[in-house]
Design goal:
heterodimer, A: alpha+beta, Rossmann fold, Beta-Lactamase, Alpha-Beta Plaits, 22 helices, elongated, disordered N terminus, disordered C terminus, B: alpha+beta, five-stranded mixed beta sheet, globular
């Protein structure tokens, strides 16, 4: 008799049974047979069940009618091929089911094969034209071997479509997450998006992942973001991993590609110089080339976007820091748009409102204070008074000990209201200070307008923006004599003349002041706030006194001011004038008569 | 080959007393005679039952059929099919004999029913029918 090895037809695959069982864990290709003939069921089982395609077995589902077939198709999404008989419960049950699969169901990958015993019921060409089916098997022409060949072909088509669908899904994931990354606002949001993207490309689980902001691939990271992962293993690997990751990032840096190890992957993206961003994912990388390429493209662009964002954030922080030293408004006033454009020698002459402010008696006040208390007191005072000035369009040119110099564009009205609001803010601060048992702070301010030359002085290494002008000098002197006038806000005639008639009404004339270093006297006005109009001598009364002084009627003037001082005992300005104008022993004499 | 090829299959019951010896002599006779007739195919012996599937020119198949009718080692011969086929599916097999020896041998009606179902579903081919039979016997063995 013949031995078993003589006949491959009958015995050849007995040996392969073991391998079939070994790979039984492999998901089978699911084939659905819809036919109302039990003989077809039996023979089809015998013919198709032993098949293997790409080393995967077949699972043959069998139903007896179009309706039963539809129920199975509704409940499963993994059917590779549906083999449909045409005539079942109705003449066209198979055709209707084919149409339903293509138009109603979500099974757009399932291959449809129409099998017919009576081609008259469903002529091949017409059926192919009218229905979106993939093959047509006339019973009379088909041998079992041929049927297996055709079925194998259909299963492979399904396999390829599945691959394409999976790749398209990957691509969509990449595109969606890239556009989300491009729109992401903060660095933290971006790192979250990148972790999510990696999870999706790796099939949904979140492995432990690390993102590093690196000065160089060798140095310890400046910043680390971490996704702990959803697996139990992830929770156990939260410790510092930098030593392990550094080697993998080095490998990636050397090849300029994603480094795929057996159990993790790493990518270093070099942004500029050696500075860059690193990503390490503690998960086995995908094995197929497409998935690796998709991951590579996605990660490279993601890290490029992230490092660009980190660079922008760094520059923004730097610019913010620079602008605290050199305010942007001040830069603009020199004729440049941005601080990086400023050159030594830049200058611009323009009409400018100059404000000098000074904390009165601060030297005395600070005698009993330590350095840090002095700093805190100054800080709180400046923080209180500068916001209204900035809101009013001004810029603080310099802080000068217990005072500061502010500049306002000359094209705008003089900043009288801004200065008044600043003084209001100091009053509010004083309420708080008094509540904590601290003495009130008092600030005096002066405003003067005129041409100011704003220029950058210095060399290539160190430059400063400086206001050089007689206007600044005069303003400084005016601020100095506010003490003599006992007035908190003293303004020059340049301010008075630039104001609207209504605004002028809130100013009180104080005559002409002699300013040190100048021949011409400067008419000055008291511009202090007018919350208690009834406690102050009216402007008209003061104007009359000033007129008397100016024509030399000293006695009449003194009588007028004394009378006003009696009528308004809390009007400090009147006491100041009495000393300034009429007391020959007064050392100041700035506003004095001659 | 200009002459039409015929595929022929039958099943019959073994009547002899020494299956080992008989099968050996049948196989020897087949390999001696069939090349001259141009007949190729497979002879299955399943616990007392023959199933033979052969292909060859019409004259060769007729000669084989005459000899089968005269052979006393078997009886109850039932023809399964006889049809013209376009090409040989056992071209390189002169004749092979196999003992299948399933636990419960197929009965004649069982073989005929299988033949009927097969022929109703597919265009018959000698090789396909044997493969089908093999799968059937195997699934039968796993079931029992």
């Amino acid at each position: 008799m013949s031995g078993p090895d003589d006949d491959e037809l009958l015995f050849a695959d007995e040996g392969s049974d073991a391998s079939a069982e070994a790979s039984a864990a492999q998901a089978p290709w699911v084939v659905l047979l819809v036919d109302d003939d039990p003989a077809v069921h039996m023979v089809s089982r015998l013919v198709f069940s032993p098949m293997r395609v790409d080393d995967r077995p077949l699972e043959l589902l069998v139903t007896n009618s179009g309706e039963e077939g539809r129920k199975v198709l509704e409940s499963r999404h993994d059917i590779a091929v549906a083999i449909l008989d045409v005539v079942m419960e109705t003449e066209e049950a198979g055709l209707n089911l084919a149409r339903w699969i293509r138009t109603q169901s979500a099974l757009n990958l399932t291959r449809i094969v129409l099998r017919t015993g009576q081609p008259g019921n469903a002529p091949e060409e017409e059926v192919l034209r009218l229905y979106d089916i993939n093959d047509y098997w006339p019973k009379a022409e088909l041998t079992a071997a041929r049927a297996r060949t055709l079925l194998t072909g259909q299963i492979r088509s399904f396999r390829d479509l599945q691959t394409i669908a999976r790749q398209r899904a990957d691509l969509e994931t990449v595109l969606r997450s890239m556009s989300r990354l491009a729109e992401a606002r903060g660095v933290d949001g971006m790192t979250r998006d990148i972790f999510e993207q990696v999870s999706m490309l790796l099939g949904g689980d979140t492995p432990p992942m690390w993102l590093y902001d690196l000065v160089s691939v060798s140095a310890a990271p400046r910043d680390t973001w971490h996704a702990f992962g959803t697996s139990a293993a992830g929770a156990a690997t939260t410790g510092p991993r930098w030593d392990l990751h550094s080697a993998s990032l080095h490998s990636s840096h050397a090849t300029r590609r994603v480094y795929f190890a057996d159990d993790h992957l790493a990518l270093f993206h070099e942004a500029s110089g050696e500075h860059g961003v690193g990503l390490v994912v503690d998960a086995a990388p995908p094995t197929d080339t497409w998935a690796r390429n998709a991951l590579e493209v996605a990660l490279r662009w993601s890290l490029a976007l992230l490092s660009a964002r980190l660079l922008v954030e760094e520059q923004r922080a730097l610019l913010t820091a620079v602008e605290r030293f050199v305010p942007r408004r001040l830069v603009r006033m020199t004729g440049r748009e941005a601080v990086q454009d400023v050159q030594p020698g830049d200058h611009r002459l323009s009409e400018t409102w100059v404000v000098f402010a000074d904390l009165r008696g601060f030297t005395t006040l600070s005698e009993g204070l330590g350095p840090s208390e002095i700093r805190r007191t100054l800080q709180s005072a400046f923080e209180a008074v500068t916001p209204p000035l900035l809101e009013g369009g001004g810029v603080i040119d310099k802080f000068l000990g217990d005072g500061f110099l502010a500049l306002f564009p000359g094209a705008a009205p003089p900043p009288v209201e801004a200065c008044r609001r600043a003084l209001d803010c100091l009053d509010k601060l004083n309420v708080e200070r008094n509540a904590s048992g601290l003495p009130s702070l008092s600030m005096s301010m002066a405003i003067h307008g005129g041409p100011v030359l704003l220029c950058t002085l210095g060399d290539q290494d160190r430059i400063d923006i400086t206001a050089i002008s007689d206007t600044v000098n005069v303003c400084a002197r005016l601020e100095a004599i506010t003490r003599d006038y006992r007035c908190g806000l003293l303004v020059s005639s340049s301010v008075f003349e630039a104001l609207s008639p209504e605004a002028r009404a809130s100013l009180r004339p104080l005559g002409s002041a002699r300013v040190r270093g100048r021949v011409a006297r400067v008419p000055v006005y008291d511009a202090e706030r007018t919350s208690r109009q009834d406690l102050r001598a009216p402007a008209e009364a003061l104007a009359r006194a000033v007129a008397l002084v100016e024509v030399g009627a000293v006695d009449e003037a003194r009588a007028a001011v004394s009378a006003l001082a009696d009528a308004y005992p809390s009007d400090e300005v009147l006491r100041g004038l009495l000393v300034l104008w009429f007391d020959p022993t007064s050392s100041s004499g700035n506003g004095g008569l001659r | 080959m200009s002459e039409a090829l015929v595929c022929y299959a039958y099943t019959s019951r073994y009547r002899g007393l020494e299956p080992e010896a008989d099968l050996a002599s049948i196989a020897a006779a087949a390999s001696r005679n069939n090349p001259a007739l141009g007949v190729t195919g497979v002879l299955l012996f399943d616990a007392g039952r023959f199933i033979q599937v052969v292909e060859g020119p019409r004259e060769g198949i007729y000669a084989l059929q005459r000899r089968l009718l005269a052979d006393t080692r078997h009886s109850e011969l039932v023809e399964l099919f006889e049809f013209e086929c376009p090409m040989r599916t056992f071209s390189d097999w002169e004749m092979r004999a196999h003992r299948v020896d399933t636990h419960a041998p197929m009965t004649s009606p069982e073989v005929v029913a299988l033949r009927d179902a097969y022929v109703g579903v597919f265009r018959p081919s000698a090789r396909d029918f044997l493969t089908l039979m093999q799968t059937y016997l195997k699934s039968r063995a796993t079931r029992s």
